[in-house]
Amino acid sequence: GKGVLSGGIAAKIIKIARNAKKAIIVDPKGTNFGRYRGADLITPNQGELAAATGLKTETDAEVIKAARRLIKDHRFGAVLVTRSAKGMTIVPAPGKDGGGVIHLAAETQEVFDVSGAGDTVTATIAAALGAGADLSDAAALANVAAGIVVGKVGTAAVFNADLVAALHHQDLSSAEAKVLSQDQAKDMISLWRHQGHKIGFTNGCFDLLHPGHVSLLKQSRKACGRLVVGLNSDASVTKIKGAGRPVQSEAARAAVLASLESVDAVVIFVEKTPLQLIKTFKPDVLVKGADYNIDTVVGADVVKKYGGRVKLAKLEPGHSTSATIARMAKKPG
User: Does 295 map to a domain?
Assistant: First the structure.
């Protein structure tokens, strides 16, 4: 059996769901697919399809033939076959969902871990169908989700922001794609570490970016393999700097930072300090300007405790956002 679904339990559940007019989606195990008879959708991988039918499943034609055998033998509404690097194939029963076979190419460019990919496909399709999508759109969304999750390290989740970014990747600039949520950044940091990179972190308001900021970021990037910049939110800047600040919105400041070659990711935080981000990301190198000393750098004690290091970057004299704003205010007109 499959967990608690041994014996005839699966068949009983399917009958109850069908009587309640609920969609039935099955991620199968074993070779006896008869226990899932009457399901609306079944999602075997290529190997499971071959084992259940005794047919070859290497080519598109062979996959379609085997899927149609399952539909005929067990009255499935459709079969979705996950095919690893070849993506997925959806074969509906005759007369359902237009009856046409759909092949979806794999979305991921690099596979790090396939753990949970099948679960991701099933869960995404279920959510999409439940929200009213048709099977082809639900499968396309699941394909994107699977491409995201196999590109992460370990058993990972796919966040809403991941899907939105992936669906709009052709329209997103590389700079916009660097602006990440905390969860997205955490996943990206795990991936970078898996690739052997040391993670650097610095933070600030970065209102009216000037050469001093650029120098700090360049020095920060030289000290690590990938640099994450914590950016104070608008509300956070106002609490620190006072009314009238920031001059530029958090979205504008994040876009400018992300456009710099030295910056690999930008994460906006709402707190007055980045301490929580530092605890979450655990950077190998924490960088601040030399106007601080190590004892006054927020998070320095945390980083040193787990073996990281704190770097004080050389300051470029004569550059200050506050001074620039003051000069602008004095100019007539």
Answer: yes
